[in-house]
Specification:
single chain; 407 residues; alpha/beta; seven-stranded mixed beta sheet; globular
């Protein structure tokens, strides 16, 4: 009997050792280095004061946006070298389809330089305070055993938008929230996705814009459940704050989350968050910069993308023609993504040409089946996407659904 017991014990120990030696779950990661030394590229530094801005705009966050025209690449390099020589540290550098973006910080000060190749336009955003609110340049935790996923929240409303992106360490990036009725679903999703006994951590909560079907659930969540999660920072477009729409109470709502920072974002900014990068493809301030802002509040939506080295998910919010058509011109096939949140609940305003650049396999529709089935309001675009050779799956929000990066 003793011999049999020893044999069983050895067998069990062998199984345990084998299990312990297994590789952790492989998670995709963004590993590319995002930096460039302009002191080596530019022959001399060029102060922006030597240039004459074509337009100046003060953003809702009181950041100042100066735009300069007929600027070549060498002048851009000289301006970036100037800021580096003035003691600004490069926070990030990003290239998108020939367009160049460099973000600098100096204490609490921030400078974000954009250059658009097709327009030969340079726009510089300066802030005295917002450098203090950026996510860490390189986070301490960049890996983990949790699969990277996108979860679309369940909603019984005809429209609305809320997404949770879970990262390798189990933390989240959150997009919007949804209608008022989704607040409990949001709380439940955090609980269900977070390992038992742990408090959910939101590394970044991004609001595309302030319409109620994107924001009201957050307001309710902030009132009732703010202490159930830890939020590190909120990302927003200054065009939404203080407007006549619902983000007029934004600062009061986010103040209910102890320790959370609020960070305005601009076109071309990029952040490293755990194992992914979050890039800001376009914000409405771009329209103010060139004097072509429309009155459609949906166009204030931030368009952004979460990506690793080999997988990506793009979120269009409710961005309409003016915004997304410009984005298509600026970026073209750089927009190619594996997942796509369909703009404005799939019912209007986003032309097919944009989706032809994106060519996503998984299409997230933040709407009900009844809205998806409408015979008018952009039905041609929905039909074309459904018939596309690239489309593998269409997901509406009548049930909570999760898909993994790399599926």
């Amino acid at each position: 009997m003793k011999k049999i017991f020893l044999i069983i014990l050895v067998f069990c120990m062998t199984i345990c050792l084998f299990a312990c030696e297994q590789e952790p779950v492989a998670v995709p990661m963004a590993t590319k280095i995002l930096s460039k030394d302009f002191t080596q590229l530019a022959e001399q530094s060029i102060s922006p004061k030597e240039l004459i801005p074509g337009s100046t705009f003060t953003c809702g966050s009181r950041d100042v946006m100066d735009s300069y025209y007929n600027i070549d690449e060498n002048t851009l390099y000289g301006v970036c070298r100037y800021f580096e020589e003035q003691g600004y540290e490069q926070y990030s550098y990003h290239e998108m389809n020939g367009n160049l973006f460099s973000t600098y910080v100096k204490g609490a000060g921030l400078v974000h330089v954009m250059w658009f190749e097709c327009e030969k336009r340079m726009t510089i955003v300066t802030s005295e305070t917002n450098g203090a609110f950026l996510p860490p340049k390189m986070p301490e935790i960049r890996t983990g055993s949790t699969p990277t996923t996108v979860t679309q929240l369940k909603s019984l409303e005809i429209n609305g938008m809320g997404y949770l992106i879970q990262l390798a360490d189990g933390s989240f990036i959150v997009y919007d929230s949804g209608n008022l009725s989704v607040a409990q679903e949001l709380k439940d999703a955090f609980k269900d996705l977070t390992p038992k006994g742990q408090k959910p951590v939101v590394r970044a909560w991004l609001f595309t814009h302030g319409h109620g079907d994107h924001y009201d659930a957050f307001r309710e969540f902030a009132d009732k459940y703010a202490d159930s999660v830890t939020v590190e920072r909120f990302l927003y477009s200054p065009a939404n704050v203080g407007s006549s729409y619902l983000l007029s109470g934004f600062l009061e709502d986010v103040a209910k989350f102890d320790g959370a920072e609020c960070c305005p974002v601009y076109t071309g900014m990029v952040f490293t968050i755990c194992n992914v990068r979050l890039e800001i493809l376009i914000t409405y301030e771009e329209e103010y910069a060139i004097g072509s802002a429309s009155k459609d509040f949906n166009n204030t939506s931030i368009v952004s993308r979460v990506y690793t080295d080999d997988y990506s998910a793009i979120f269009l919010g409710d961005a309409g023609d003016d915004c997304v058509e410009k984005m298509a011109v600026l970026y073209g096939d750089y927009l190619k993504s594996d997942m796509c949140q369909i703009s404005h609940h799939g019912v209007e305003d986003c032309p097919l040409v944009v989706y032809r650049h994106i060519r996503a396999g998984i299409l997230w529709y933040p709407c009900s089946q009844s809205l998806y089935n409408l015979p008018d309001r952009d039905a041609e675009v929905r039909k074309a996407l459904a018939a596309s050779k690239y489309t593998k799956e269409i997901i509406i929000h009548e049930s909570r659904e999760t898909r993994e990066f790399g599926e």
